[in-house]
Amino acid sequence: MIISNAKIVLKNKIIDGYIEFNETKIIRIKAGKTNKPSFNAKGLYLLPAFIDSHTHGGYGFDFNMLSGHNFRQEIKKYFSRIHKEGVGSILLTTVTCSDKDLDNIASNYNIIKTFDKNNLIKGWYIEGPYISIARKGTHNKRLIRPLDIKQLEHLDKLLPNTVKVLAVAPEFKKNLNKYKLINKDFFLATGHTNANYQEAMQSFDLGAKRIIHLYNAMPNFDKRFPTIINAIFNRRDLNCEVICDTKHVASKTILNTYKILGADQIMVISDSLLTKGFPNGTYDVWGSKVDKRGVLDYLHGTNCIAGGNLPYNKQIENFGKITNCPMTDILKVSSLNAAKSIKLDKKIGNLIKGAESNFVLLDKNYKLKATFIRGKII
Questions:
Q1: Per-residue pLDDT, 304
Q2: Are 238 and 209 in contact (CB under 8 A)?
Q3: Cβ–Cβ under 8 Å, residues 304 and 298
C-alpha cells in the first residue's frame, strides 16, 4: 500500500514524496514520485496519526467505567468513532477512585485490549487519587490520599509491561519523599497541585517531567511569589499538556505558551469527557451531573467547569491557527512529543521505517482531510 503525492512531515523537514506500508508498519519513505498503484494525497500534508495522551473518553464512554462490569457495548461504540478524530493512539485516563476501583480497572485493562483491534490504547494515565485537595477540580475530595507505595506496587504487578503515567501533587503529605520508589515503574506527572516554586522544581528533578493540563488546576504565574508556573517556564526538559479548546486556556495564552516553551515542550490534549459527540444537555459523569454547553461541561446548575468535549482534530486545528506554526511543529505537539514522553517514539508519533501505519492528511489550514488506521483509510 502506498500514499503518493504527499508533503511528508518528518521531524525536522518536509519532503514531497510517497510512503509505502502494510497493515502494521511503515516499509519505506521516499522523495519523488512512484509508478506503483497508490492513494493520491493531492499535495496534502502527511503526518502520523494523532496521539491523545490525556482523555477520559467520549461518545458515551468513560474509562472509569472499567471499575465495573458493564462497559463492553459502550467501549465498542467509542472504538468505532474515535479514529474519525485522526487519533491513532491514546492513554486511557481515569480520575480519583478507590483502591478497589483501581484494582478493577487494572484487571479489566487486558479485557478491553481484546476489543482494541487497532491497538489504540497505549497505556493507562492514572490522574488521581494522589493529587491536591486544594486543586482537585471535579475529583472526589473524600478519595484523595497520599502516595501509597504498596498499592502502586500491586498495580504494577497487575500490569507489569504496560505504560503507566501517574499524576502526583508533590506538596501533598510528603509525596516527594516517595518519588524515587516509583519512578522506575511509572512516568510521573505533576499537576492538580498547589505546589510552590521549590516543590515543583524538586518534583521535576526527581523525574516528574510531564505537566498535567498546564494552567488548569494549579496556581497562576506570580511576579512576587513564584509558583509552579514560574518553575515550568524556567525548565527545558518538561512535556506540558495544553488543552486547546480556547476555553480552558485562552487563545492568546496558547500563543504566549508556544512562544515561551516552543513546540518541543507542548503536547496538545483533549482531556475529553464522555459527553464528546453528544448534544448539549445534562449527563452523569463520575457520580455527578454535568451540563454540556458547547465545548465545555459544567457542574450541573453552575458555571464551574467540569471538563471539555472538543474532538482532538479540532484542538489541533485551533493550535495551528492560533500559532501559525509550521507543520513540523504540528507533528511535535500532536504526536511526537507524546510518544517520546512514554518512550514509544520508535513505534508511534513518528514517520520512520517500522513505525505503525497510522496516518493523517491535513490541508494547509490544519484541517483533517483523511485518516489511515492500520494502513486503511477510514
A1: 85
A2: yes
A3: yes
Phi first, then psi: give them for residue 340, nearest 5 degrees. -65, -35
Give the pLDDT score at 138. Answer: 86
Cα–Cα–Cα angle for 275, 92, 274, rounded to 5 degrees = 5
At 273, the amino acid letter reads: L
3-state secondary structure of 36: coil
φ, ψ of residue 226 in degrees (nearest 5)? -55, 135
Furthest C-alpha separation in the chain: 64
- Rounded average pLDDT over 151-177: 96
- The secondary structure element, H or E, covering residue 127 is strand 121-127
**Which pLDDT score, from 0 to 100, does residue 62 have?**
94
Report the distance separating Cα 60 and Cα 80, nearest Å. 12
For residue 83, which phi and psi values (nearest 5 degrees)?
-65, -20
Q: Strand, helix or coil at 174? A: coil
β-sheet bridge partners, residue 297: 292, 307
Q: Whole-model pTM?
A: 0.96
Distance between CA 158 and CA 125 in Å, rounded? 15
What is the distance between the alpha carbons of residues 323 and 242, in angstroms, rounded to a whole number? 13
Name the nearest CA neighbour of 57 among 48, 69, 66. 66
